[in-house]
Amino acid sequence: MTLRTRPNILCNYHGEAHLTDEAHHEAKPDRCAGIEFDAIAPDEKGNTFFFKGDHLWNGFRGPAQLTKEFFKELNDHHHLGHVDAAFRMHNKEKPQDHDHIYFFLDDKVFSYYNHTLEEGYPKDIQLDFPGVPSHLDAAVECPSGECTSDSVLFFKGDEVYNYDLATQAVKKRQWAHLPNCTSAFRWLEHHYCFHGHNFTRFNPVSGAVEGTYPKDARRYFMKCANFSHGSDVQVPKCSEVTLDAITSDDSGKTYAFAGHIYMRLDTHRDGKHAFPIGRAWKEVANGVDAVFSYSDKIYFIKGNQVYIYKSAAPSTLIEGYPKSLKDELGIEGPVNAAFVCADHHIVHVIQGQKMRDIDLSATPRMVGSEFPLPLSGIEAGMCGPDGVKVFVGSNYYHYESPMILALSKLNPIPIKITPDIFGCVD
């Protein structure tokens, strides 16, 4: 939150106040000019809103729009419709609250779902969050696993209030090493403090700064001319999507790879975003042929080499790698696709129109079975709870199991890649 003055309507003629408001609304803020956000929060669909005064930005690109066009009641109760703080609730124990956006304005709290104000709101902050002060600067959710329990972090000046959603206990801390946050944002399982036009990533338990910060938000959280950190990726048309590889690790994180970029597919609550492969796995930055996950590790096949990384962040290349395909899996390249089903030890390797099964628990590893496939041109594949998906161009084919894929005589109906799966555009 930033301090601002409100037009004193009672001290002016109505005509003068009306003109002042019109001029104010026409002066749309430009986030690429280096402004300080009042609040940042995603909605239940993963659309992220950046707030400044009575304007907001919907997503990481595009112009400012009036807040009242999305959240009408905020403007009804406050002349400027400004936002002190906002966060998206993470509380699966209370589904009636989970995924709601909570806005804080002065001493009031508003709860929205599907851009509709919930019945009974606004309320005094103390009714919903006892022990949390008014006139906040920032707020951000912290799910269990990232914090010790489902919590919300509230910021006011140099003080941080950790609010436990289950017990309603409040712990007040001072994180002197962290800048005063005017907004805060949890994105892709990381927590960020925004201050000025910069941001700092921090540990939500200790407040420790993680990495080299601050960094300019215009290079990472918005599309601005002359500001880039090398990850500008054009959103492709769905009909043009061609995957090189796809995999889901033991923690449920799903990655799709195409060219030199990758995308997390399990983060619909944060939106889908593409990044350079080198950001997470620098040794294979220029692209991969196949990827599969096994035993808390991710295997990347590139040419005739295998790179193995620890799945847990930050991804670390296992000592001694890369190794040759022959030494690691007992085969020669090239490889078109590879996948492992959960709780199994067999990697199914697709080379041309053949599928070769290799037991990863065996020493040495070698091909145990080989099957001709009914489908040609497979470029990527993965195995999940609902079966096997293999990708050919911008379509995929679904099989109930690897054995059915191997023994089928007829191909199933191709399924088109859609925006809700891959974040592409029609």
TrEMBL record:
SUPFAM superfamilies: Hemopexin-like domain. Belongs to the hemopexin family. GO terms for molecular function: metal ion binding. Coiled coil: none annotated. Pfam families: Hemopexin. Keywords: Glycoprotein, Heme, Iron, Metal-binding, Repeat, Secreted, Signal, Transport. Binds heme and transports it to the liver for breakdown and iron recovery, after which the free hemopexin returns to the circulation. This is Hemopexin. It is found in: Secreted. It comes from the Eukaryota. Hemopexin repeats lie at residues 34-74, 80-132, 133-177, 178-224, 240-284, 285-332.
